[in-house]
Design goal:
The complex is a heterotrimer of chains A (290), B (238) and C (939).
Chain A lengths: L4 H21 L7 H23 L19 H25 L5 H23 L11 H17 L3 H29 L3 H5 L6 E4 L9 H6 L5 H24 L4 H24 L5 H4 L4
Chain B lengths: L1 E5 L8 H12 L7 E2 L7 E2 L3 E9 L6 E8 L7 H5 L5 E3 L6 E3 L9 H5 L5 E3 L6 E3 L4 H4 L12 H5 L5 E4 L7 H9 L15 E3 L11 H4 L10 H14 L1
Parallel strand pairs in B: 1-11
Antiparallel strand pairs in B: 1-10, 2-3, 4-5, 6-7, 8-9
Chain C lengths: L16 E6 L8 E7 L2 E7 L12 H4 L1 H5 L9 E3 L8 E3 L2 H18 L4 E5 L5 H11 L4 E2 L7 H11 L7 E3 L6 E5 L7 H13 L3 E5 L5 H5 L2 E3 L6 H14 L5 H7 L5 E3 L18 E3 L6 E3 L13 E3 L2 E5 H9 L6 H8 L3 H17 L2 E3 L3 E2 L5 E2 L2 E3 L2 E5 L1 H4 L4 H14 L9 E3 L64 H10 L7 E5 L11 H9 L11 E6 L11 E4 L8 E3 L11 E7 L12 H12 L16 H7 L29 H7 L3 E5 L12 H10 L15 H10 L9 H10 L19 E6 L15 H4 L5 E4 H6 L7 E5 L4 E9 L6 E5 L16 H4 L37 E7 L32
Parallel strand pairs in C: 6-7, 6-23, 9-10, 9-21, 10-11, 23-24, 24-25, 29-33, 30-32
Antiparallel strand pairs in C: 1-2, 2-3, 4-5, 4-25, 8-22, 12-16, 13-14, 15-16, 17-20, 18-19, 26-27, 27-28, 29-34, 31-32, 31-34
The chains are: A mainly alpha (290), B alpha+beta (238), C alpha/beta (939).
């Protein structure tokens, strides 16, 4: 898949934002007033910013409201609802915490669950796609959620949660990569089934339909070299998990905390780039790509 | 309603591709645009493209198969389910999968969900384009009845494309599918495509008939002189 | 929310109006419905009523809208202001353009008309352009057949009075075995696709003989991946097997062919010539009387075996000679298998299948008919084997003999002009005797003494001057290529440049991209076009060129006469030259301006009429000097070639009720337009088959004006005209070839089909066959600038068989240096498995020159696209005899494009991934096309 910056930005930022909201809704850190404002501002900046970024790739962003209509069937529509509801509920909750010094913990819990639900719906947009075996895995939502809560814990300054959650996320990441690498082969889809010609012999794509490129090739066919991918995986893993955990073990100060957050964000963004760039859409088979 | 595409007959001429481009540029929805039309990297929206594949059997010569591909109007169309706005829909009356362009936000998710590469986002219009099965032809009272078929079917010189009601087991297309072993693409995707492909017939079999053919080739005489003798006798019989 | 299905208008208005005309996106001439909205072209589809395409239309045809609006359209007459090849022009008025042309041409006509060489490329108005050239008085006229498919056309006409494509077609509805030789996707494309579709729908068998398994060969049930240039040998082997097994149609051979004709067997000046009666009719032995009898005498039963002694000279039937020749073991499958690259078992199996279908699946049609000998037949016997070939077998130096061999195979099986077999289309069948001979007598200020092109009957018809030197600039109809019935357009520029046989003054060309893909030795030709003599004058002094588009050739002309697109013009697809007939009927068609040009351009034929009027050419002007015709439309209606016979056969007579013959009808074009742009006259049922011998057909053809009198004839298995050239080479007769050609004429002009090796001199080390073919969605240079089609084929790799890919360590996208004795190119490669092991190929004419066709200079056509033409020279490398032999068929002069042998080596990707050789950009006289397109004319 084409690693579109808008979508990488969206999923990375909003994942962290909703992860932070999850913790804020549960009362971690237990802050109020201006301090709370800063935390909520960061959470909203990340989640809303991410959502805004996601509209950059739309052909008609002005029609975005129509996306709320198909919640019965569409994970994208559900994501929209969850995001709006989470932001509204958390907004009310934030007003209480910031301005009224009130912690409506029931509301906070609902907001936290909605935040997680938003991340889950986001992940389901990808997970549901049988066309992209690397995404069509149970581990995909697990990964999105584990990254979100680990990043949220980190942003919320909850070292006690952050270290184990980062370790879990790191484990999930390794498992995801492992099963992702097998996914296309395991899916049973190949040029033989794609063309129905597989039982006649080995099938090989000959001339492409057009010598020029097209939307499908631009959108779905992106080949990352194996060596390059391995290098990026190592960098991503180090930045997202190893460095933050290392920093968190050190005595806490705000600089170290900020460094851990930045490193984690860069690592997650890299992992997300790989998530897209390495994902093989089965349409590529028709074009003899992969 | 749907198409049956005969892979034994398609010669790969691209007639359907361009006829489709012409009709759908002028008709349903936004025109199918072309970017860098006369430049280094021309790229346009097409709703139908003809691939080609080589098949190497375990024994014998490699075969080449031309492979037209457009929307298969799946019964369980994943592109419809994923659409957040309802712009993508499958018509109740005939099962045609369409995009209502005025509702399309151009998110591209339907194209992601389609295993067949049947949907292309038009770069000029920002909306998703796809085969409409020429819904503006097949019921069109302004066309003579015989022309109420998709543009690709009407134009196909080799007659490799058939249009009809695949839901009716007695229809000509259904009969064709039954006779020729019509197949689905990527059945494992569970999309239940309506369009079917007729597989190529067995190739390169003439030598397998040698038992029948060899007796036909028994020499009439061993020597040229004997040949003239045979000739004389044969002429007598005429 | 529940989904609400939108309400659709499923019956939108399709167009304001449909205008029916004839396509010109290639040479097929399909009928098209042009849908108009607001006076503009909105959509183009096939015309269901049209005899050629019956509603279907190919990719090119449907992309016509992009052609009609192409940015590469020329806009006004151009006068060259920079050096040739620079592309520097200024736009001038038509008055000025015509004055310039007349200023050049008039003095030539007055002094020496042969100083004008007028050659038209993909011209579909040859009966008109040749009429113009004839009235101008130059002998130097031809179209592009010489570098296209003259072997097929001439081989067919000399053998059976017609060939494939425009001459005839398989009986698609009845054939059960269709055998296709060589690349055929480029001519008659929709009808063949429709025919293959019909065969496939019936589950009948298609056998494809072609080194490359694409297109029709991809759908063939059996693919014979033959070694290029060996088709003739393969066919002769099939003939060997079939004859040896007696699986031939003896009744057919004895009745309808010259197999029984008696031939002088004694050494001497008559050897191999037919025994004729006082009327010149070939004689056969009648099995009833045992006496020599004219072949067409009522009741005669020709004998295939009996010989005849007269004055001590033995006369043997042609069939004796055939038996001797083809039963020889040199044609046994085992003997040819290696050369052809086809296992002997496969050759036998195919011969067996031919025999099985032709004889065991024979059938009868309940249709009475009467033959030319007056014999009535109660049935028509069907032999459901049909064949087709086109440029693939044609464009070899042994192509003429191969085409003859193919027809002989068809005839031996009795499958020509019978149900299920191959059928002629009017005005064919037409024997050689009904065709003109070539004419070349030039007289200042007078027309030529007759038609330029024709069919020689022997050395007496060669176009030679009194001193024996070639009369024509292209050396057609000379001892070098005696049967060059279509001329040799590919030799014109090199001969004119060399002043051999003489210098010319003005080269006038139409629709021929001679500085690019339509010529061999592209670079050399460019140099010849721009070469100057010691005085600083161009060696070819003046060049006039007409084209509708900014092709590569434009830059090399001094004066450009811009043509219209095909939807803006009148055209006439006439029974007088290359009509659109079907086996079941005679048909012709027109083009008419369904839109008016939005530029200062004129249809080329109209411009020729305007030039003719200014030059006062007879045929175009009355005695008082007044113009007969104002434009081409006027000519199409009012010209009469013979009384009552004009360019269009339909709706003749004052009231439009006559067909074929009839007075001029002033409303004829309106009647054509009302009828969909064509006219079709069905052949009566009893005349549908056996046309060369069918009295009902012959009478019908006379009524239609196709013949002046019935012309029944025999198929010429043995070609007597060829024997006459051999006799001359043996020293007989008063017109004698130069000594250095005697051996070659004797060897190649065998009156019975033979096969000979075409491996060229200088090929040591060059062992790989290299071919081109045209993609079905492109046609030469007509289509490559088309915004839709260029997305399908915007660049062309060299397709390399798996074996050679492995041998040279190549993988897809790598580059290879491909060289021939003449040159080298460096190009990208792509692997192909379904390909002859020792053959590489590419798509023809995708490669474009930078600056041409209104493309951006970095267009892939100009960067990655390439031509094989750079590797092919019009002359073969010197072989040490002091001569340069032409790279063409020694019989017809057909350009031997497909004899190319190359060497392939892996190469570094050139800088900027630019295929080599790279030519400097030429300045575009029309700028470049727009960036983006979203074409919709209706609202």
């Amino acid at each position: 898949m084409h690693p579109a910056p808008s979508v990488i930005l969206f999923t990375t930022l909003s994942g962290l934002g909703f992860g932070l909201l999850f913790f804020l809704g549960l009362g971690f850190p237990n802050v109020s007033g201006w301090v709370a404002f800063v935390f909520f501002a960061i959470a909203y900046a990340l989640s809303v910013g991410g959502l805004m970024a996601s509209t950059f790739h739309l052909g008609h962003p002005e029609r975005a409201l129509k996306a709320f209509t198909q919640w019965k069937t569409s994970w994208l529509s559900r994501e929209g609802w969850c995001a709006v509801l989470a932001l509204l509920v958390m907004g009310l909750y934030a007003i209480g915490v910031i301005f009224l010094d009130q912690r409506w913990s029931g509301l906070g819990l609902i907001g936290s669950l909605l935040s997680l639900a938003t991340v889950f719906t986001t992940s389901m947009i990808y997970t549901q796609l049988k066309t992209i075996p690397r995404w069509n895995l149970t581990l995909t939502p697990v990964m999105f959620l584990s990254f979100s809560v680990a990043g949220g814990a980190l942003l919320a300054g909850q070292t006690a949660f952050a270290i184990p959650l980062l370790l879990i996320a790191a484990l999930v990441q390794i498992l995801y990569w492992r099963s992702g690498d097998q996914a296309l082969a395991n899916s049973g889809t190949n040029l033989g089934t794609a063309t129905g010609l597989g039982d006649r012999g080995s099938v090989r794509a000959f001339e492409p339909p057009h010598t020029g490129t097209n939307y499908l090739l631009r959108e779905f066919v992106h080949v990352v070299g194996r060596k390059h991918a391995d290098k990026l995986r190592a960098i991503s893993f180090a930045l997202a998990f190893v460095v933050p955990v290392g920093l968190l073990i050190l005595p806490f100060n705000h600089l170290v905390g900020a460094l851990a957050v930045l490193s984690h964000m860069a690592g997650i963004a890299t992992s997300r780039w790989l998530f897209f760039a390495q994902a093989e859409h089965v349409v590529g088979l028709y074009y003899g790509k992969r | 309603m749907g198409l049956v595409i005969d892979l034994d007959t398609c010669v790969g001429c691209h007639a359907c591709v361009i006829s489709c481009k012409g009709w759908n540029t002028e008709n349903y929805g936004a025109p199918l645009s072309d970017q860098d039309a006369y430049g280094a990297d021309p790229s346009g929206t097409f709703l139908n493209r003809v691939h080609s594949y080589e098949v190497q059997p375990a024994e014998g010569a490699a075969q080449l198969i031309h492979f037209p591909k457009s929307c298969l109007h799946c019964e369980d169309a994943p592109c419809v389910t994923v659409c957040p706005t309802g712009a993508s829909y499958k018509r109740v009356e005939d099962g045609i999968v369409l995009v209502n362009e005025s509702d399309c936000i151009g998110c591209g998710l339907c194209a992601w969900a389609c295993p067949y590469g049947a949907r292309e986002l038009d770069a000029a219009e920002g909306v998703m384009k796809k085969c409409t099965l020429c819904v503006d032809r097949i019921y069109n009272d302004n066309l003579p009845e015989e022309d109420r078929v998709p543009a690709c079917v009407r134009t196909c010189p080799a007659g490799a494309r058939h249009f009809g009601d695949l839901g009716d087991p007695d229809s000509e297309v259904s009969q064709l599918v039954a006779e020729r072993g019509g197949m689905d693409l990527m059945p494992e995707m569970g999309t239940k495509p309506v369009n079917k492909y007729l597989p190529p017939r067995p190739k390169d079999t003439v030598e397998d008939q040698i038992d029948i053919l060899a007796p036909l080739l028994a020499p009439v005489a061993d020597e040229p002189k004997g040949f003239l003798g045979w000739l004389d006798k044969a002429l007598e019989k005429l | 929310m529940t989904h609400q299905q939108p309400i659709l208008d499923t019956s939108p208005k399709v167009s304001d109006e449909v205008r029916k005309t004839t396509c010109y996106m290639c040479a097929c001439r399909c009928g098209i419905n042009v849908h108009m909205k607001d006076g503009k072209v909105a959509y183009i589809e096939g015309n269901r009523d049209h005899p050629v395409n019956k509603g279907v239309l190919c990719a090119k045809g449907s992309a016509g809208i992009m052609q009609v609006n192409a940015p590469s359209r020329l806009r006004a007459p151009l006068k060259r202001v920079g050096p040739r090849g620079s592309g520097e022009f200024e736009e001038i008025s038509w008055d000025e353009a015509l004055d310039i042309a007349v200023g050049w041409l008039k003095p030539l006509r007055e002094d020496n008309p042969e100083k004008l060489a007028f050659f038209t490329g993909r011209d579909q108005s040859q009966s008109f352009t040749s009429f113009w050239a004839q009235n101008f008085g130059t002998c130097n006229y031809a179209a592009h057949g010489g570098f296209c498919s003259v072997n097929m056309a001439a081989g067919g006409i000399y053998t059976m009075g017609g060939a494939f494509w425009e001459f005839g077609q398989p009986d698609w509805d009845r054939t059960k075995l269709f055998m296709l030789f060589g690349v055929a996707e480029d001519h008659d494309s929709n009808p063949i696709k429709m025919g293959i579709g019909k065969i496939k729908a019936r589950g009948a068998r298609v056998i494809g003989v072609n080194p490359i398994r694409t297109g029709y060969n991809a759908v063939a049930d059996d693919w014979v991946g033959i070694t290029p240039g060996t088709d003739g040998l393969f066919i002769l082997s099939l003939i060997h097997v079939l004859m040896k097994a007696g699986r031939i149609d003896l009744d057919y051979l004895s009745r309808y062919t010259n197999a029984p004709v008696l031939m002088n067997a004694a050494e001497g000046p008559e050897k191999g010539l037919f025994l004729r009666d006082a009327d010149g009719k070939p004689l056969v032995i009648d099995r009833v009387t045992g006496q020599p009898t004219a072949f067409d005498k009522p009741g005669v039963r020709p004998d295939l075996t009996a010989t005849y002694e007269m004055d001590g000279i033995t006369h043997r039937p042609v069939f004796h000679l055939m038996a001797e020749k083809y039963l020889s073991d040199e044609y046994a499958p085992e003997a040819v298998a290696e050369e052809c690259g086809i296992p002997a078992s496969r050759i036998r199996a195919i011969a067996g299948e031919l025999a099985r279908v032709a004889f065991d699946e024979a059938f009868e049609l309940d249709q009475e008919w009467t033959d030319f000998r007056g014999e009535k037949h109660s049935k028509m016997i069907g032999r459901p084997v049909a064949m087709h070939a086109m440029r693939g077998v044609s464009a070899h130096a042994n192509g003429f003999q191969t085409c003859r061999a193919l027809h002989v195979l068809q005839i031996l099986l009795g499958t020509v002009e019978v149900p299920g077999g191959f059928r002629f289309k009017p005005p064919y069948p037409k024997p050689v005797e009904a065709h003109p001979t070539p004419h070349c007598k030039v007289t200042p200020n007078s027309p030529l003494d007759g038609p330029h092109l024709g069919f020689v009957r022997g050395p007496e018809d060669l176009a030679l001057k009194a001193d024996g030197s070639p009369a024509r600039i292209d050396k057609a109809f000379t001892w070098e290529n005696p049967m060059s019935s279509h001329g040799l357009m590919h030799m014109v520029i090199s001969n004119a440049h060399a002043g051999d046989p003489y210098k010319i003054d003005t080269l006038f060309m139409y629709m021929a991209n001679m500085s690019w893909n339509s010529t061999m030795n592209t670079k050399g030709v460019i140099e010849m076009l721009t070469d100057k003599d010691d005085n600083g004058d161009y060696v070819i002094p003046r060049i006039i060129y007409s084209d509708a588009y900014s092709s590569e050739m434009v830059a090399y002309a001094d004066l450009i006469l811009p043509d219209t697109t095909y939807l803006e013009r009148h055209d006439c697809i006439s029974l007088l030259d290359r009509p659109i007939c079907e086996a079941d009927g005679a048909a012709d068609a027109i083009r008419w301006p369904v839109i008016e040009p939005d530029r200062d351009v004129r249809g080329f034929q109209t411009v020729l009429i305007q030039l003719a009027n200014k030059l006062g050419l007879p045929g175009f002007t009355d005695e008082d000097g007044s113009a007969k015709y104002t434009d081409y439309a006027d000519y199409m209606v009012n010209h009469q070639r013979k009384p009552g016979i004009g360019p269009l056969a339909g709706f003749r007579g004052a009231d439009g009720s006559q067909v074929g013959r009839g007075d001029v009808n002033p409303n004829q074009l309106d009647r054509y337009i009302e009828n969909g742009g064509f006219y079709l006259e069905h052949i009566p049922d009893e005349a549908l088959f056996y046309k060369p011998w069918n009295a009902a057909y012959q009478d019908w053809a006379v009524g239609m004006g196709l013949y002046d009198s019935p012309q029944p004839y025999l198929f010429q298995l043995y070609s007597e005209p060829m024997r006459k050239f051999q006799l001359a080479a043996e020293g007989h007769g008063d017109r004698q070839p130069p000594d250095h050609l005697r051996g070659r004429i004797t060897e190649t002009m065998d009156p019975l089909p033979i096969w000979y090796e075409t491996d060229q001199t200088g090929n040591e080390g060059f062992t790989v066959n290299a071919l081109t073919q045209r993609p079905m969605a492109m046609y030469h240079s007509w289509g490559t600038q088309n915004a839709w089609l260029r997305q399908l084929h915007g660049r062309n790799p060299l397709y390399v068989p798996t074996k050679l890919m492995c041998e040279h360590g190549l993988k897809d996208g790598d580059w290879a240096k491909v060289s021939s004795p003449h040159g080298e190119i460096t190009v990208p490669v792509m692997e192909m498995a379904a390909l002859n092991d020792n053959t590489v190929w590419t798509w023809n004419a995708i490669g474009k020159r930078k600056g041409a066709w209104a493309l951006q200079p970095d267009a892939p056509e100009a960067t990655k696209g390439f031509l094989l033409n750079h590797l092919i020279h019009e002359l073969l490398p010197p072989k040490g005899d002091g001569l340069r032999w032409a790279n063409s068929d020694p019989i017809t002069g057909q350009a031997a494009w497909f004899d190319l042998k190359v060497k392939i080596e892996k190469a570094e990707a050139p800088a900027d991934a630019q295929s080599q050789p790279e030519f400097p950009s030429i300045k575009s006289p029309v700028g470049t096309g727009p960036k983006d397109l979203a074409w919709k004319v209706g609202k």
